[in-house]
Amino acid sequence: MVCQTQALQSDVWNSQPILSKYYQWGDFIYGGIIFQSVFLSAVQNFRTQPFGQLPKNSIITENYQNILALDFAAKEINRNPHMLPNVTMGFNIYDDGLNARWTNQATMKLISSSNRFVPNYKCSIQDTLLAVIENLSSYFSYEVQNAFGIYKIPQLMYACSSAETKYTSPLSIHQMVPNAAHQYRGIIQLLLHFKWRWIGFFAANEDILEWFVKKILAEFSLSGICFSVIELFTSISYDTSRGEIMKSAAAFFEKVTNNKANVSVIFGEIHTMVTLRWWLDHESRQTVQKSKGKVWILTAGMELKNVGNGRTWDTQQLHGVLSFVIHSNELPGFQQFLQKTTPSSSNGDGFIEEFWSQAFGCTFQGSLQNNVGGNTCTGEEKLESIPEHVFPMSITSQSYSIYNAVYAVAHALHVMYSSRFKTKTMAKMDKKELQNQVVWQLHSFLKSVSFNNSAGEKLHFDENGKLVAGFDIINWVTFPNNSFIGVKVGRMDPRFPPDEEFRIDEDAIVWHSWFNRVQPLSVCNPSCQPGYKKEKKEGEPLCCYDCIPCLEGWISDMEDLDDCFKCPDDHYANMGQNSCIPKTITFLSYEEPLGISCVICSLSFSLIVAMMLRLFVKHHNTPIVKANNRDLTYTLLILLLLCFLCTLLFIGQPKRITCLFRQTAFSIIFTMAVSTVLAKTITVVLAFMATQPGSRIKKWMGRKLTSSIVFSCSMVQAGICLLWLTASPPFPEIDMHSSKEEIVLQCNESSSVMFFCVLGYMGFLAIASFTVAFLARKLPDSFNETKCITFSMLVFCSVWLSFFPSYLSSKGKSMAAVEVFSILASSAGLLCCQFSPKCYIILLKPELNKKENFLKRKH
C-alpha cells in the first residue's frame, strides 16, 4: 500500500501542545470509525474544593456528560448486531481551547498518522477517519471546515451558531441543530407574547452584529419591536490584563444601566458566556454601579453552565434568564449509564479521574495532585449526589445532539454498506477500497438519512443540511449559593402546525426579584389604554408614541392601537370610547309610558265622542241638535271618533301595511272632518242670506249642497293620497343614525313633497273654514255656531302650524309622538269648541233648548 503525502513542516506547532484525551477498548476492527471532536478542554491544575465551590477551570466537569453521551452512543451501536455488525466504532477527543492555533493544529493531526505529525500522510486502515463531530465558534470554524472539506470528510456540527457565517460552508457540513431562522422567529414570538416591544440588543462580535442588522433587524421592526440600544461587546481574550477586563466590565455595565429596557437579548455563541462571566464577576462589579434586574434572553449555544461554578462567580444577575436551547429528550438507559459510571468501571476513559477529582473535590492516590493534600477519592462516590448545576443527570441539549450525530453516521454507513454489497459481503471487500472510498461516499447517505432515535423522535436533514428539529425555551433559576437549575417553559418547533409551533407556560416562569416575581414590562412608554390611539413622536423610534383620545363615536378596544375605528351601525361607543354597546331597538310602543299615554288619550277622547254622539242621538229632535244641520253634526262626531282612533296606527312597531295607510287614513279622515266644518259654516252663511227678502239662495240649501262640499273636498285629498301611494309609497325603515344609542324603527314617508302636500291641502281647508266662520261670527242669531267654529279652527290651525317645526326637529319615535299629539290636540279642539256648548245646554240648561228661544233675534 502506498501512502501519498503533502510536504508540510510540523515543527511550527511545537509552541502549543495538543491537548488530547481518548477512549480505547482495544484494537479496532478493520474499517473502524474514529469520531473526532474539537469541543472539550483537558484541565492541567486545580484546587480541591467541596461541592458548589469547584475550581474556575472546571471545563471537564461542565462537558463530561458530552463525553459520556459520545461513549454511550458508540457502545450502543457496537452492541447492536444489526447496525454495523463488522465495524467497531471508536473516537478521539481534541480540544480547540478557543484558540485558532490549537484548532488548526488539531485539524492537521486528524489527517496525519497517529505517530507522525505529517498532514495527508495516513497509511493505517485500523483508525480510518470517517467523520468529525465538532463544536466550533464562527470565529475560526471556516478554517477547519475548509480543511476537512478538501478531504471530503463529513463534519457534523452540534453547536448552534447565532449568525450565518460570511464564508461559504463546504458541502461536507451536516448540522445536528435546527435552522437558526426558527430561533429568531421564536424570539420574536416570545417578545410579542409578553408584549416586550422595547428591548436592548447585545452582539458577541462584529460578524453577528453586522449579520443581525442586515438580515434580522427588519423582521423585528415589522413585528413592532424597537431597540433602546444595539451594541457590540468585545470578547475578552485569555491573555487580557486584569485592568482591561475591569474596563470592559465597567463599559458593559454602563450600557446595561443606561439601557431603559427591562429586556435584553444577547446574540452569542458558546464562548460568549465565558465573556459574560467576567462581566458578571462580583469583584468586577464592586467598582461599577449595580444594575437593576433584567430579563436576559440568550440564544442557543450560550449554556448557563458555562458561567462556571466557582465561588467568585455571582450568578444572581442571571436569575430568571430565558434561554433558547436545542430540543432534547430523555434517552432510555442513559441515566442508568451515568449512574454506573465509576473510575473502576471505565477502562480506557482518559477523562474520568480528572472529572472525578473536580466533581468530588478529591484526589487519587498516586496522582500529582495528591501531593498537595486533601480528600482521597475512593472511586465509590455517586454521580447522582453531585448538584444538578455541576453535573446534570438528565441529558442536556449538547449531549443529545452528539448522541444523534453518532447515530446519524452509523445509519448512513449502514445504508451505504447495505446498498453497495448486496451480492458480496464486507469480508470479501478489498480493504484499500473501503478506506479510500467510504469517506466521500458517506455524504450523500448522510444527506438523506432518516431514522428514529431511541427516544422515539424522527431525525432527518433538510435541503440545507440542517436537522429538522426545534428549540426548547429554558428558564434558569439561580440560588444564593450560585447553584442553578433549568426549567423547560416553552418551545419553538416547526414540526408542529403554524398555530402550535410556539408554546410558552407563563405560570412556570420565575422572574428576577427586581420585578417582585411578576412579569415585567419592557416598553418605551406606558401602553395606550383602550379609548386612545397611538401618535408617533417625531424623531423617536416607532415604539415611542403619545396617546391621543379617540374622537367621539370612535373607539379602540385594545391597547396600543394605531388608530381608532367606528362601531358597527347597530352599536354605539360607550363613554370610555373603549367598547361598542349594542343599540336598543326603539319605536313608539304600547309598553312604554309615552305610548301608553297616547293610547289612553285616544281611547278616552273616543269614548267622550261616543258619549256625545249618543247624547245627540237621544236629543235629536231638540232645537239645539237640529240647529245648523243635524246630519252634519252626526257626521262630524263620527269623523272625530275616527280621528282619535286613527292615532293607534302610529303606535306599535311599524309594518308595511300600517306605514302605507296611516298617513292616508289620517289625512282623508281629517280632510272630511274639516270639510264638514266648512260645510256647516257655509250652511250658516247661506241660511242667513236665504232669510233676506227676494233671495234665491234658499233653493241651493239642503243635503245636496253639504254632501257635495264634503265629497268634493275629500276626493281632492283622496286623489293626492292615491298619487302618493302609486308614485312613492311610505315604507318601514330601520334608522341607525338618527339616534346615538338607539335603532329607530319608523315609517319613511318616502316623499316629503307628497306628505307636505297632504298637510298643506288640509291646512288650506282649515284656513278657509276659519275665514268664513270668522266673517260670519257676528250674524244675528240666538245660537250662532260660527263663533264656535271660529274658535275650533283657530285651535286647529295653531296646532298644525306648531306641528311643522316640532316634527322637523324631532327624531325617531318622537316624530310619531309629535304627530299623534297634533292629531289628538286638533281633534280635541274641534270637539271641545264645537260641541261642549251644545252639551252644556242639553245637560245643564235644558230650558234653553226650546224652539222659541231660537226664534228670537238679537239686534
Written account of the structure:
- The protein has 859 residues and is α/β, with parallel strands linked by helices.
- Among the domains are: 11-178 and 329-396, Rossmann fold (3-Layer(aba) Sandwich); 532-582; 593-855, Rhodopsin 7-helix transmembrane proteins (Rhopdopsin 7-helix transmembrane proteins), CATH 1.20.1070.10.
- The chain has 21 helices and 27 strands.
- It has an eight-stranded mixed beta sheet, with helices on both faces. A six-stranded mixed beta sheet has the order 1-3-2-4-5-6, with helices on both faces.
- Strand 19 (532-536) and strand 20 (545-549) form a beta hairpin.
- Helix 16 packs parallel to helix 18.
- The relative contact order is 0.08.
Secondary structure blueprint with pairings:
Blueprint: E1 20-22, E2 33-38, H1 59-79, E3 89-94, H2 100-110, E4 131-134, H3 141-150, E5 155-157, E6 173-175, H4 180-193, E7 198-203, H5 206-222, E8 226-232, H6 242-258, E9 263-267, H7 272-279, H8 282-285, E10 295-298, E11 321-326, H9 334-339, H10 352-360, E12 362-363, E13 375-376, H11 397-420, H12 431-447, E14 450-452, E15 458-460, E16 471-478, E17 484-492, E18 502-504, E19 532-536, E20 545-549, E21 554-555, E22 565-566, E23 571-573, E24 580-582, E25 584-586, H13 593-618, H14 623-626, H15 630-646, H16 656-690, H17 703-727, E26 731-735, E27 742-748, H18 752-775, H19 786-808, H20 813-844, H21 851-855
Parallel strand pairs: 2-3, 2-4, 4-5, 5-6, 7-8, 7-9, 9-10, 10-11, 12-13, 25-27
Antiparallel strand pairs: 1-3, 11-16, 14-15, 16-17, 17-18, 19-20, 21-22, 23-24, 26-27
